[in-house]
């Protein structure tokens, strides 16, 4: 499920040649560039990145071997640490063929530096044991100026550029972590917290290499390896709040199940741990529900190289260096690779279909794959209805938890930290209809009742998400229920007005009268609610309820244009006596409208009048 | 001796005194006699009394019992001669609906008799109401209602024990057993039976549905669909909230009896323990019947086995008299009750009954089968797990919505609404005994006093004389001598009876008509009642 090297870039590997030429490579995690220094820059410094093709090539003075190389976000400046106590700023752009200009900076106390980081294009952060200082670098004047300084007590420090977050370790055994936000030329201290790294006599101090920072599902986590003598290593995730007053909390614990060297990646909100000796990679998704805070790997897999690499590079070697989020550097081969997820393989790797669909729904830009997989799972009837509902609820955007998580940083007052937002996948009603529901309905191998139930589950998800279903969807649900013969269910659903009223729906229901008489009632109810009086009269005439149609017209004071139609129906269906009553009724109303004059007289044929006369003549009147 | 597995266990728990100033009357207060007879058994001269299978009151001497049943039989046989063939067709048509039985009514100076014949005219049930007593009790006699009460009694028996004929199909040796069973049932049923002072309610015999919003209702539907998918063994299902019906998947013919049993007998008895344990695990669902310990896998015996009910099959109306035994599971959580029915397999319904009756009545000498029915603790446990959280969620959502709407609807009139096609009935005059504590109470909040007995009688008379059973539409306005107005509307088969108390706003027919229009508009707006 993991593929190495869809993107890659070669570089000159480290070497110390006999001729005295030395090549050293540095990876700058903030700018995600690899910098190759030949003879400490005297023979050139090359920096490359996977994200863009721009290769930077400059020459610097050889002032000793640097221990760090950091490029400013715009790539115009480079900070290099060649001595423990100072850093050199190198102005990259200004020199075409000559050597670069340099500027030497240090902290006030000139103590050994723990971190040198670019905060913005012209602000450099220096951290030593006792202070963190923010310098402004004036590119034109080639000068530096202290903007801000704060006292810290640091054993080591790491910097997370996306959130401008500086994490400082201090305290006994270095396990007290102090997050500081460096933004707007200010240091903002957040609540410090203690981590459990499984300290023991053999391992006294919490080390920089055992901590990492990453953004997962819109939240920033500090990831800490916790070693144990008895059980296998765990990776603990501490969630950093967005404000400065909440204490960071231990949230998740990933069970690695092995000991020994490993690399860590965070790709598309998944934590991926590569274990070197077993040549396995574990993929963790903290959103997969778990009864406790502990998570087992969702998938255990092995990295596969992209087919473009021939011969395929050897994997999980000692020469591999991994960097967050997705960089693998093969220091021996001299290639920097990116690692990517191959989600189309998740069908094979994740046996449980519901988990698999939820997994896909959480991935970026995999909507097409998700919809196709969903359809195939539904066709194969691989999910229970309850699972289907849960999947639907997720993609409708109705899950409240998701909504709140999405806006967590905005909701919190006084948010000082920011990070990349996570937007859950939303599948629109049209997409669902055209790509899932209609194909299901057209699939003749599936029982209609199953399809109808799926649609009802979808309808429920929409309601739960407070979305109003589209008329077409409702019509389809009703038709499918009718095809499935679930008349009693349909009737109960209509009675409770689960589905919105509309005239077409009413006529649809009326057309089912033959199969379920109660639906007729419901249909007329809907017409009545829609004030479709004319249609009701038509329906009544259809049912030969002539007198009631008249009554209805009277009660509602309806358009008189309907009267001729009713009279015509009366002529066809009613007994002579009824017609007489109708005629009398019309005559009575004549005073109000002259319209009826012509109609009322048409009610009888001569033969009928004759017949009535005979009847009257021969009948006997009983009087008591 | 009464076992908990016996369906009638709960009948005995109900209090006997009717609520004061209520709108119901104890049936025995107006009853003169009630009997079940099997005419074939009393054919021989001198052995006429053998046709009597059950007689109430028991104190009546045997000669009188024979006389009464003999008269009934004679009446039926005699009037048979006058039934034209067309009339007979009508009778059979009624049978098709399963709601009507072949019946005869005899009215004497003192009493009103109704006899019905069931099961291919093999059996006869009869009832006699004393006119004197009903006058004292303010109970208006309405013959169709008495007929319905009688057939309801039969249907209730049939639901729990199967058909009469299934008892005696092996010959006369089984008759003592049959008598015992009849006695067991009716001796409890009749004294506890309450009838409405508005007999129309007993006659219509609908069920009360809970009103709620569509989206929420869909939650119920989807929960039940999920349940049925997960447990295909469940064939029939009913969902109630408080004492009102929300959803059902079973034959309409069984619905009124089951609903009545649940709301009048089973659920009220659960209320007390629920109130006691309130606060503790309130949202935890539980089974109302059957075993209390679900953690083991021990087979279900005796007290722990589930009761069996005999229901019509839903799909094929051809076998309309075929009753199938179902084991009934009743699961309840936060006022929501799910009633599930599992076919009592491995034996026909009758055998299922035999077994449970044996275990409930006396320890059987027969070798007991490993378990009564197919429901096991395992199944109960699995269903419990499946329903637990979801049902609690749905139930609390319903509770919220019902609570929101709990504004007392101050009506200044009485009404009966009945839809024969859905069996939905609501009325300001009906009561749901013992559940009124938890019920929303919307029915009892009417400001007006109950209509007097003459108005009730007038409603019944108007119904039988002026409103046709077969017509789908009709309208009728009646003014009583005590100035009450009765409005009967029938639209699209639905019936609406409004009973308006005397007031200055209802002096003329036009006033009443406009008042009716207002009521329909405000209270029945969703329904087409022009």
From TrEMBL, chain A:
A GO cellular-component term linked to this record: Mon1-Ccz1 complex
Superkingdom of origin organism: Eukaryota
GO biological process terms on file: regulation of autophagy
Domain Mic1: from-to ranges: 363-601
Domain annotation Regulator of MON1-CCZ1 complex N-terminal: ranges: 26-143
Protein name as it appears in the record: Uncharacterized protein
Organism field: Caenorhabditis nigoni
Species lineage: Eukaryota, Metazoa, Ecdysozoa, Nematoda, Chromadorea
Originating gene: Cni-Y50D4A.4
Automatic annotation (TrEMBL), chain B:
A Gene Ontology term for the protein's cellular component: Mon1-Ccz1 complex
Domain of life: Eukaryota
CCZ1/INTU/HPS4 third Longin domain location: 410-517
Ranges where the record places region Disordered: 351-375
Name of a matching Pfam family: Intu_longin_1
Alphabetical list of InterPro entries matching this protein: Ccz1, CCZ1/INTU/HSP4_longin_1, CCZ1/INTU/HSP4_longin_3, CCZ1/INTU_longin_2
Annotated CCZ1/INTU second Longin domain residues: 234-388
GO biological process: vesicle-mediated transport
Domain CCZ1/INTU/HSP4 first Longin: 31-162
Biased composition (Low complexity): 358-371
Annotated family: Belongs to the CCZ1 family.
Protein name per UniProt: CCZ1/INTU/HSP4 first Longin domain-containing protein
Species annotation: Caenorhabditis nigoni
């Amino acid at each position: 499920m993991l593929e190495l090297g869809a993107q890659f870039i070669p570089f000159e590997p480290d070497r110390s040649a006999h001729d005295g030429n030395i090549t050293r490579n540095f990876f700058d995690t903030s700018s995600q560039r690899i910098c190759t220094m030949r003879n400490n820059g005297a023979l050139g410094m090359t920096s490359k990145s996977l994200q863009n093709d721009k290769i930077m090539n400059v020459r610097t003075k050889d002032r000793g071997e640097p221990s760090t190389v950091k490029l400013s976000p715009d790539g115009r400046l480079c900070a290099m640490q060649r001595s423990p106590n100072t850093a050199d700023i190198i102005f990259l752009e200004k020199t075409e063929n000559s050597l670069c200009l340099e500027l030497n900076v240090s902290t006030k106390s000139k103590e050994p530096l723990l971190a040198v980081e670019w905060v913005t294009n012209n602000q450099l952060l220096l951290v030593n044991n006792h202070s963190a200082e923010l310098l402004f670098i004036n590119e034109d004047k080639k000068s530096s100026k202290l903007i801000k300084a704060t006292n810290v007590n640091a054993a080591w420090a790491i910097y997370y550029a996306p959130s401008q977050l500086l994490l400082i370790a201090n305290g006994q055994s270095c396990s007290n972590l102090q997050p500081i936000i460096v933004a707007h030329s200010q240091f903002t201290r957040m609540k410090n917290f203690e981590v459990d790294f499984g300290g023991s006599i053999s391992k006294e101090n919490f080390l920089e290499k055992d901590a990492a920072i990453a953004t997962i599902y819109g939240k920033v986590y500090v990831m800490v390896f916790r070693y144990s003598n008895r059980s296998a290593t765990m990776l603990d995730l501490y969630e950093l709040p967005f404000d400065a007053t909440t204490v960071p909390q231990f949230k998740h614990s990933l069970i690695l199940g092995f000991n020994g060297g490993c690399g860590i990646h965070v790709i598309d909100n998944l934590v991926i741990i590569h274990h070197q000796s077993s040549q396995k990679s574990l993929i963790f998704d903290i959103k997969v529900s778990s009864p406790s805070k502990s998570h087992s790997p969702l998938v255990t897999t092995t990295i596969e190289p992209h087919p473009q690499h021939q011969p395929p590079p050897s994997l999980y070697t000692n020469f591999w260096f991994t960097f967050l989020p997705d960089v693998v550097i093969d220091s021996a081969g001299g290639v920097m690779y990116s690692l990517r997820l191959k989600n189309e393989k998740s069908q094979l790797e994740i046996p449980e279909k519901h988990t698999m669909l939820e997994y896909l729904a959480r991935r970026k830009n995999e909507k097409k794959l998700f919809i196709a997989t969903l359809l195939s799972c539904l066709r194969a009837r691989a999910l229970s209805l309850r699972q289907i509902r849960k999947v639907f609820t997720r993609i409708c955007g109705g899950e409240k938890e998701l909504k709140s998580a999405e806006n967590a940083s905005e909701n919190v007052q006084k948010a000082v930290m920011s990070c990349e937002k996570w937007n859950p996948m939303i599948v629109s009603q049209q997409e669902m209809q055209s790509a899932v529901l209609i194909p299901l309905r057209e699939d003749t191998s599936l029982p209609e009742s199953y399809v109808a139930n799926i649609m009802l589950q979808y309808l429920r998800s929409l309601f739960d998400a407070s979305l109003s279903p589209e008329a077409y969807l409702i019509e389809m649900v009703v038709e499918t229920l009718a095809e499935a013969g679930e008349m009693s269910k349909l009737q109960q659903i209509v009675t409770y007005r689960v589905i919105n009223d509309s005239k077409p729906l009413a006529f649809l229901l009326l057309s089912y009268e033959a199969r379920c008489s109660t639906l007729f009632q419901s249909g007329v109810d809907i017409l009545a609610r829609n004030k479709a009086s004319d249609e009701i009269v038509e329906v009544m005439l259809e049912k030969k309820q002539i007198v009631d149609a008249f009554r209805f017209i009277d009660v509602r004071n309806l358009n008189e244009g309907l009267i001729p139609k009713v009279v015509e129906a009366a002529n066809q269906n009613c007994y002579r006596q009824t017609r007489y009553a109708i005629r009398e009724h019309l005559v009575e109303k004549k005073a109000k409208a002259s319209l009826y004059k012509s109609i009322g007289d048409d009610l009888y044929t001569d033969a009928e009048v004759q017949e009535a006369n005979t009847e009257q003549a021969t009948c006997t009147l009983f009087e008591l | 001796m009464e076992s908990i597995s016996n369906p009638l266990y709960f009948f005995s728990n109900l209090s006997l005194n009717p609520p004061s100033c209520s709108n119901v009357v104890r049936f025995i207060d107006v009853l003169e006699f009630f009997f079940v007879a099997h005419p074939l058994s009393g054919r021989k001269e001198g052995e006429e009394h053998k046709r009597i299978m059950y007689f109430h009151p028991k104190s009546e001497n045997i000669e009188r019992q024979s006389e009464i049943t003999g008269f009934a039989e004679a009446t039926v046989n005699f009037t048979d001669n006058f039934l034209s063939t067309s009339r007979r067709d009508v009778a059979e048509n009624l049978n098709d609906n399963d709601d009507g039985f072949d019946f005869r009514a005899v009215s004497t100076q003192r009493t009103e008799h109704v006899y019905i014949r069931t099961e291919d005219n093999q059996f006869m049930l009869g009832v006699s109401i004393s006119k004197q007593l009903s006058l004292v009790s303010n109970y208006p006699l309405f013959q169709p209602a008495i007929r319905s009460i009688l057939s309801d009694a039969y249907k209730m028996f049939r639901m729990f024990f199967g058909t009469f004929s299934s008892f005696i199909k092996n010959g006369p040796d089984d008759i003592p057993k049959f008598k015992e069973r009849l006695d067991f049932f009716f001796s409890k049923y009749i004294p506890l039976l309450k009838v409405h002072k508005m007999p129309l309610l007993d006659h219509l015999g609908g069920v009360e549905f809970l009103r709620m919003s569509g989206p929420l209702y869909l939650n119920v539907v989807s929960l039940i669909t999920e349940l049925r998918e997960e447990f295909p063994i469940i064939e029939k299902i009913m969902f109630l909230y408080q004492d009102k019906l929300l959803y059902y998947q079973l034959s309409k013919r069984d619905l009124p009896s089951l609903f009545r049993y649940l709301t009048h007998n089973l659920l009220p008895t659960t209320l007390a323990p629920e109130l006691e344990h309130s606060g503790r695990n309130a949202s935890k669902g539980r089974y109302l019947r059957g075993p209390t310990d679900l953690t083991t896998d021990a087979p279900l015996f005796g007290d722990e086995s589930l009761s069996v009910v005999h229901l019509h099959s839903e799909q094929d109306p051809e076998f309309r008299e075929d009753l199938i035994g179902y084991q009934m599971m009743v699961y309840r959580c936060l006022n929501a009750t799910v009633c599930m029915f599992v076919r009592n397999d491995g034996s026909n319904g009758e055998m299922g009954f035999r077994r449970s009756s044996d275990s409930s009545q006396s320890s059987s000498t027969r070798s007991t089968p490993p378990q009564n029915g197919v429901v096991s603790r395992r199944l109960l446990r699995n269903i419990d797990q499946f329903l637990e959280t979801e049902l609690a969620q749905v139930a609390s959502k319903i509770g919220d919505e019902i609570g929101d709407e709990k504004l007392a609807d101050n009506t200044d009139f009485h009404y009966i609404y009945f839809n024969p096609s859905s069996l939905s009935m609501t009325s300001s005059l009906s009561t749901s005994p013992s559940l009124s504590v938890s019920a929303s109470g919307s029915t009892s909040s009417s400001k007006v006093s109950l209509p007097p007995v003459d108005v009730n009688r007038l409603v019944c008379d108007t119904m039988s004389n002026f409103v046709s059973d077969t017509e789908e539409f009709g309208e009728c306005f009646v003014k009583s001598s005590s100035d009450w107005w009765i409005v009967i509307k029938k639209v699209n088969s639905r019936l609406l009876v409004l009973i308006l108390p005397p007031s200055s706003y209802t002096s003329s027919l036009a006033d009443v008509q406009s008042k009716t229009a207002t009521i329909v508009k405000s209270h029945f707006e969703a329904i087409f009642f022009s």
